[in-house]
Amino acid sequence: MSCSISTHVLDTGAGRPAVGVKVELSGDNLTVAVVTDRDGRAQLADGLKPGLYRLAFQPPSPFFRRVELELELVEGHYHVPLLVSPYGCVSYRGS
3-91 in CATH: which number? Predict the structure, then answer.
């Protein structure tokens, strides 16, 4: 059993992908830090063991300085986007 995780950050206030956003994935004996590419996307990790992980974003928002999610990965691929604006943020499990 293994898992993988990717993300996509969209700046809904500006109406475009959020480029250069720092994203951190952490779990037992694991810390991965990446930045989103020109499409606002980032592949965080492949071959993860199932378990609890923390996914933290530092989005381009004057209010939301850090958005952190705790996830339980079981098996398969997980895509966890973040939509952020100066006034709100939302995340969901994508495909």
Answer: 2.60.40.180
DSSP state of 94: B
Give how far Cα 90 sits from Cα of 47, 53, 82, 85, Å.
27, 18, 6, 9
pTM here is 0.92
Smallest Cα–Cα separation from 57: which of 7, 4, 2?
7
pLDDT digits (tens, 9 = 90+) for 9-65: 999 999 999 999 999 999 988 899 999 999 999 999 999 999 999 999 999 888 999
Residues 88 and 95: their CA atoms lie apart, in Å, by 22
Q: 87: phi > 0 → left, psi -120 to 50 → alpha, else beta; which?
A: alpha
